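Form 12-C: Joint structure prediction
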Amino acid sequence: MEFVSPEGLRLDGRRPMEMRQLRAKIGAVDKAHGSAYFEMGNTKVIAAVYGPREVQNRSQQLNDQALVRCEYTMANFSTGDRRRKPKGDRRSTEISLVIRQTMEACIMTHLMPRSQIDIFVQVLQADGGTRSACINAATLALADAGIPMHDLVTSCSAGYLNSTPLLDLNYVEDSAGGPDVTVGILPKSTKVTLLQMDSKLPMDIFENVMQLATEGCKAVANYIREVLLEKTKERQKFHGV
Amino acid sequence: MEQRLSNTWRMTINEKKFIKTSLLADLRVDGRRPFDYRRLIIKFGSEDGSSEVQLGQTHVMGVVTSQLVQPYRDRPNEGTLSIYTEFSPMADPSFEAGRPGESAVELGRIIDRGLRESMAVDTESLCVVTGKLVWSIRIDIHILDNGGNLVDAANIAALAALSTFRRPECTLGGEDGQELIVHPPEVREPVPLIIHHLPIAVTFGFIGEENIVVIDPTYFEEAVMGGSMTATLNTNGDVCAIQKAGGVGVLPSVIMQCLRLASVKAGDITNIIKNAVKSFNTERSLRKIKRHNSSVIDVSETAQKVDVKFSTNHVNRLKLSEDSRVAQGNGMEVDGQISQKEGTSKRDSSAKSFIGGPSSWDPHSKGIDPDALRASFASRVVLAPTEKLEDSKVDEPTDIEPNQPIVDDNSYISPKEATNTKSKTNEEKTLIDAIKPKHRRRRKASSQH
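Section 2 - Result
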């Protein structure tokens, strides 16, 4: 199948190095301490953060740092074929673990010992790159909750199809069986915290694809900063400062 | 996640500090240098497709089994490959019995991604009837002892088990050409899987703020490290999978350096696996000689097999020569039977052996040792379900399988060597022997399809 036309356009009309449209909204869940809604093209996710609060299960309490928990779920209606997925299947368990560990690395957990932070992410519409979108949404939600963090983690994916590196794969490109590299970075230091890849790719091409995904992450980081700044200004106005 | 903290052993601050400071001086607690791999030992069970990997203190067992199933609707001509992990509380108190925990799921997914997404195993060759029947290969990974770096050990165990696994051969036959015949291993040599390349997982641990990189972290280093990365590569320099699930940030240049290092290690590990598989295969073909000896039906199967039988008998006779004269009498008797059979046509002989005529064994003869007798009984029981298939098989041209010459080569070995291997296979019982072979039962069931 042709994923890049001779004119250099992808199936959804983007250029190879072009990202999908990003949209973010802070404050999607009223009850939560922090929440955010994040869109990457047709991938739509919602994230809610509770905490830092008392540890529910005392046996899990950590005396030197906060306990971070994460749950990733996909809505039944999020994919093309509507089917009830068992809660806690292997894929979502793994993604929960990945998101948790990624967020744990940027939260200053040592400042909140003996407490717990819960992150819930829900995929409303899946069109490839749900993992990245969830991490971005979770970052925004954590920032909204006012949880101290070293940096804003951002994530983006990239692939390699028709011997062209492609940024931010959608579902069709993702399920084409080509390589899919998901990168999560700490934008200030450009250190890679999350890196996942599947399928086969020679090492030098992998370096290029990873570079491309890192650039994508930086673009997401700029956008997220803008959104946060806007929200802060709005709040400032609201409080009449 | 609930399992994560409930039962874990926690390291003291002093111990952590000790490991970290000694790493600053390029020293590791077990005396390795930062980029040394632990000693890798691969053992195989007596059944095809089972392996036991020892990586330092880590102990992992892999078992591969197969079953005929209906394919997925979107891939009608591809077999399936699935990986199941079992983290027993025996290996580590933090593993809980019952549902697989987070770490078990992650390990399974890493191996799954390395093997399946990179098309390491040819799934199209597992197709029997398009849209109706394909082979489903199942890899079971059991963690027996957790000494750190379970991913690499489990991956090696899976690869070793896959490369020694053989599925029974099956053909379509019957009146309408739609009936499926699964040939028992005694009748037709089982076929190995087609493996395009070996994706080797190599894990790195990142420790401390200085981001010290160590390869193949031990249990203690895992308790200290801030993050880890598993890179799965093959010897062609392709990256098959990478998993760095959060944890401390690492510079992209460090990641590329790790990948290059991993590619070198992958080459070394591939060699170890290949050598182990090779020695297993030679041992296996030696063992097969013994098996032919006990099953009489094989004698008449093909001309070549008779040939093999001859030489094995020869070996056997030599071996038994120091035994009692009675045993020798037995050997002579089988010998005579072969020469008699050589005269008859193939169809005849297979029919005769099938009935189990007087030539196969003589219950009244005192010369038969109980072992051989038991073996011949056993072979008859195993072969019973093939009865109804026999007539269709007779008409088929006998194909000489590519595996056959290997057997031939080994038939030249000295009698001393033969006895050696025989005793070795008898003595060397691994943990795998304790497990009931599942696929034998399944195969029987599937032959009724």
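Section 3 - Comments
Chain B has two domains: 5-279, 293-448. Chain B is about 45% helix and 20% strand.
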